[in-house]
């Protein structure tokens, strides 16, 4: 379960960065993205999927969280 830094870019999109893999991708969708909860399955623009247990209340960005990769 790698530590992932999530931050917003200039356009307001969320970026997903894994330092150990030097991988940065834009988040395409988040399963639960509301004022009450954030998380679940996260899809990236490269097609990969990651998971984090939903967080309540949602985190403020930038933040570092632990995700696990969802296997196809």
From TrEMBL:
**InterPro entries found in the cross-reference section:** NifT (IPR009727), NifT/FixU_barrel-like_dom_sf (IPR024044)
Q: Organism's domain of life?
A: Bacteria
A Pfam family annotated for this chain is NifT
Full protein name: Nitrogen fixation protein NifT
Provenance organism? Marichromatium gracile (Chromatium gracile)
